[in-house]
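Quick one, T. Sequence first:
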Amino acid sequence: MELLETFGSGSLLNAAKTKLANLKEELATFDDREVQEIDRKIQENQAQLSRITQRIAEINVDVTRLEDRNEKLKGPLMIQAIENLNERQKHFDSLYQYHAFKARYEAFYEQSLRSREVIDYARITENFRNNLQQNRNSLEMIQKEVQDLVTQFNYQYPVESLPIDLNQSQVYQERLTTFQDSDLPKKEGQIKEALAQAQKIFRYDFLGKIRGNIENLKRQIDEINRVLKGRKFGEDEYKFQVSPREQKKAFYKMIMDELLINQDELNLFSEGFEVKYQREIEQLFAILAGSPVASLNAKETLIDEYSDYRNYLEFDILVQKGTEKQRLSKTYGSKSGGETQIPLYIALLAAFSSVYRVKEKRNNHTLRLVLMDEAFSKIDGEKIKECIDLVREFDLQAIFSTPPEKVPEIMAKADKAVVVFRDKNQVEIREFASLSELEGD
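C-alpha cells:
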C-alpha cells in the first residue's frame, strides 16, 4: 500500500526516467581511453610477471646446480686446489720474496680489491717483467763491481787468501765481523790522526825541502853560467841547462807552483793547491808509502829516488859555435875526444865550486882543492889555458898531474911547477920556474 502510494503519483518514476536518460546520455559521451590504457598496462605487467617467474625458476635450477658443485669442491678437488695454490705461492716467494717491487705490487693489488676495480693482470705482469729485467741488469752490474772489489782486495791483501767466488761471499762478511769485533776499529781515530800527521810532514817537510833544493840549484847554475858567459874554448861557448824530467814533470810542476809558498810559509793546505794537485799529491804519497807486498829494499829505493831533488830534473850543456846551438846530450857521441873533455871539465869544476860553497857568503872557508890526474890529456893549446882560467874564475885551487908534453900550456898559467924524476927505484921531486930548466934536465 505504501509502495503504491509512493510510486502511484508517478512523480518518482518520472524522476527516475529522467535520471536514466541523463545517465545514458553521459554514457554515450564517456571517454574510455584511460581505462583501456590501464587495461593494457595490466596486461604488460602480467606478461613481465610471467617472465620473472620463469627466470626465478631458472635461477633456482642454477642455484641447485651450484650448490651441488660447491659440495663437490669441498671434497678432494678443493683440497688439491689449495695445495697447488700453496706450492705456487712458495715458488713465487722463493723467487721474488726480496724483490724491490714486491711490496709495491702487493699494495697495488690490495688497493684494487678494496676499490672493486677490474684488475688488469696483463698490465701488472708486463710491468713486473720490465722492472724485473731492469733489476737483473742492475744486479749484473753490481755483481761485476763486487767481483772487481773482491779481486782488488785479494791483490792488496794476498796474505788473506780469500776466495774470489761470489757464491762464497759470506767469507768476506765473516772477515768483516772479525775485524769489527777486534780493537782496530776502536783505534780508527788514532790511525786517522797519524795519517793526517804523516801527510802534513810529507807535504810541509818533504815537498818544501825538494823545492828549496831545486831553487838553490838554479841559483848555482845561474852563477856558473854567469862565469861561463862570454868565455870561449876555441870557438865554443858553453851554458848549463836545467829542465824538468819528463817522467816526473807533473810532480815538478806541483812542487814549483807558487801556490806552494805564501809569504815564505808553506800553504799546502790551501784549498786551491789541494784541488789543483789532489791527484799528484795522492799519487806521490802512495809511491812513498810503497806497496804492501814490496820488499824493504824496494821501498827504500823508491824513497831515495823521490826524495832526491835531482831526480826531478834533467841536466844538459848547450854548446854554441857562432849562431849555431846544440845540446851536448844530442851530439856527445859524434864529438872528438877534446870536444867532449872540455864540457866534462866545466861540469867537474862547477861541481867542486858547488860542493865547496865558494859563492856562499857564509860557511865558505874551505880548502877548495881540486886534484886532476892526467889532466887535459886530450886537450891542446889555448883550450888548456881557458880551462885553467876557469879554475881561477871558480875560486878553486888545482893540482894537475900531467905528462911532459902538456907542461908548456899549463906552465903559462900555473903559479908553481914541480917535476918528479924517477930513475929505476929512485925518485926525486924538484921545483922549477921555467921550461928551460926542465929541458936542461
